[in-house]
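To: structure subgroup
Subject: Chain for Friday's discussion

All,

I'm putting the inputs and outputs inline so they're searchable in the archive.
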Amino acid sequence: MSVAIVASHLHKGFWSRNGGVEFPLMIALPALALTLIGPGAVSLDNLFNIALPEPASWIVLAIGTLLTVAAALRSRTLATPTVSDSVGAI
C-alpha cells in the first residue's frame, strides 16, 4: 500500500473522490494496527496455538517491507499531476 500511496495517490490530495490517499490509508492503517497489536483471543493463531517470536519476526518483516517498498519506488517513475487531475477540473 505504501507504493500505491506514494506513486499514484499522494499528488492527488487526501480525499478519495479526487483519487487521493484516503482509501489506501483506510486499508493500510488497520493492517498496520493488527500487525502491531498481534492476534487476539478470537484468531486462527489462537485456535491452532501458533506463536511466533514477536521482536524477531516483526523486525525481519519490517526490514523486508522497507526494502521492498524502496526497491519498488526506485524502479518506477512517479505520476506527475496534470491540469485535469486538479481539484475542481471538469
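Points worth raising on Friday:
Helices lie at 2-9, 22-37, 44-47, 54-74.
The mean pLDDT is 79.

D.
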